[in-house]
Write a structure and sequence with these properties.
The chain is α/β, with parallel strands linked by helices. It contains 11 helices and 12 strands. Helix 3 packs across helix 11 and helix 6 packs across helix 7. The two termini are about 20 Å apart.
Length: about 325
């Protein structure tokens, strides 16, 4: 059997697993909803189930895999295999030995990285960033993660660089669940947009968002639900997405003003769902905020699409060979 590696993208709403061959071509995949109850054990079981299903789809067993790379949200200690804290996943508010738990269930080596960092490196190596030297990747989903690549290397700073989602764009503005006020993620994160939508409904605003959610059999406002609401002209959805676009554009323009990067790459569940038209909309919203609008960098859609996080995570295996 040829070389098989696995990548897993653990998100706030879904767990995506892919199995790739030695040419980084997808040979199997599986997607499950991220559990919201029963704490870490239910999430670990879902990760193992997704890996097993992706391996079955690729015609192999989990213990045949050369390795498994996992991209997880929040703070990670990659060398120790610990997920330190993941605010977008219930139950992960303290360090958890994620790689050991998954290895026990799958029988293959497991490597851990931050979800957005591995997705950005996936775009650098295999996607739209392959010919770029300096860019910022913004992954718009349950939260808003980002990573900055300088001279083809991901910039880590002292360990927490590139957190555009937590940069303040409005002093005294909306608050994130972690208590930070006026950040880009407070306006653009899907979880925070859903909270605001529910609050608006409680005050009497009308919207199709939650009807569409129920029709789709979802418990939360997925990227698809937001897209359908926009396509039908739902006023509340349009208002909240408009504010999210302005927030992302402000943060992106500020980092361009500071670092003069070649491009902005847009990915994540919402970014991939909305596609290049939304990337173009963000580029337009950046114009008034850029110091040199006539030299505005392009806003590009991530080429690896909705599987980008999982494909990027699989590259962790290559780096540990």
């Amino acid at each position: 059997m040829s070389k098989r590696i696995c990548g897993v993208d653990v998100g706030g709403t879904k767990i995506e697993a892919v199995v790739l061959n030695e040419h980084h071509k997808v040979r199997g995949k599986a997607r499950l909803a991220t559990p919201t109850t029963d704490g870490p054990n239910s999430v670990i079981n879902a990760i193992i189930e997704a890996i097993t299903a992706a391996a079955d789809d690729a015609g192999c067993k989990t213990n045949d895999l050369l390795g498994i790379g996992i991209g997880a949200p929040g703070a990670v200690d990659a060398s120790a295999g610990m997920l330190m804290r993941a605010p977008n996943i219930p139950g992960f508010d303290k360090p958890y030995p994620l790689t050991a738990a998954v290895k026990k269930g799958c029988g293959a080596p497991v490597f851990l990285g931050n979800d957005v960092s591995v997705a950005v490196l996936g775009e650098r190596d295999l996607g739209v960033g392959a010919k770029l030297h300096n860019f910022v990747g913004i992954w718009w989903g349950t939260g808003v993660g980002s990573g900055i690549v300088l001279n083809r290397e991901l910039w880590h700073g002292r360990g927490a660089a590139g957190e555009l989602g937590h940069t303040v764009i409005q002093r005294g503005g909306l608050a994130e669940p972690n208590g930070m006020v006026g950040t880009m993620e407070a306006y653009a994160g899907r979880r925070n947009m859903e909270t605001r939508a529910r609050d608006a409904v409680a005050t009497g605003r009308e919207t199709s968002l939650f009807t569409l959610m129920e029709q789709a059999g979802k418990e939360r406002l997925s990227s698809r639900v937001w897209q359908e609401a926009l396509e039908t002209g739902d006023p509340l959805a349009s208002e909240l997405i408009g504010e999210a676009v302005d927030a992302i554009a402000t943060a992106a323009a500020n980092v361009i003003n500071i670092l003069d990067l070649e491009a902005v790459i847009l990915g994540g569940g919402l970014g991939s769902r909305f596609g290049q038209p939304m990337a173009d909309r963000i580029a337009t919203a950046m114009q008034p905020i850029l110091f040199q609008p006539e030299r505005a960098p392009p806003v590009l859609l991530a080429a690896l699409g909705d599987l980008g996080g999982a494909i990027g995570a699989s590259l962790l295996v290559d780096r540990h060979e």
